[in-house]
Amino acid sequence: MMAPQEEAAPVGPVALVTDSTAALTSSEARDLRVSVVPLHVVVDDEEFTEGVDISPQEVIEALRKGRRVSTSRPSPAAMLACYEALADAGATAIVSAHLSAQLSGTCDAAHLAAREAPVPVRVVDSGSTGLGLGFAVETAARELREPEAFGDGRSAPELADAVGAALARRTRNSTVLCYVHSLDCLRRGGRIGAAASFLGGALAIKPIIALAGGHVEPVEKLRTSGRALARLAQLAGEAVAAGGPGTRVAIQHADALDYAENLAADLVEAADSELPVQIRELPAVLSVHLGPGTVAAVIAPA
């Protein structure tokens, strides 16, 4: 289960906040001392909180039954409550890193809350989501345990700026590629963006898309699932090879475990050395917009 909102005690003077699309589990968020503010899923006008009272599988079932499913950002008040709790716990600065501002209003909510926060808040638009964001948040959390890596004598706000800049750089350098089984959910949610003209009106095609510059960008469109998944494996393998030592790899999916396991096996086979590959479900909010059958490859260089 993904982490619901958890106001974790900061490790030091700088606390770290992200949102539920980062795909951190509750135990990971707790161990890393990361506070997670959840997004929301709305099914037929009933609102649910990601990681609390709705699961990715329940979202998939609702989509397959043709129910009306949408998402909403955290409120600025929820963000502010998180920041205030962290300040009460001893934080004197906060890094708040979230999914791409081109895909959600979550960063806007964070900026609004930051104006009222009792301590300085460095809001980071990751330009990414899923474990493209989650891997960078994990690394930032570990860096905050060894702040001397950023140099001695920094104030907490200066350290927050340095950690936030490093986090943003990592997400920019990461690759997120998706095989989308159907365009229906992307079109309905309005997240298809610049890819719309490229993909056209043919709902039967099997596209590969990427997150680039915070936007959904088209990569290729193929006629069969088999060809699309083979091409995804090839592109992901190239990104892994370019990433160098220490590159982290994850396959996320929306009720497509077989596809995910096959893709992971292809990447391991293609790698010259042992390659750990995590396989996880896509968060509920991302499943709403990408739809059942989606497989995403996340490649995050060290």
UniProtKB/TrEMBL annotation:
GO molecular function per UniProt: lipid binding
Keywords: Lipid-binding
InterPro entries from the UniProt entry: DegV, DegV_C, DegV_domain_contain
Phosphoprotein in keyword set: no
Gene3D superfamilies assigned: 3.30.1180.10, 3.40.50.10170
Name of one Pfam family that matches: DegV
Name under which the protein is recorded: DegV family protein
Taxonomic classification: Bacteria, Bacillati, Actinomycetota, Actinomycetes, Micrococcales
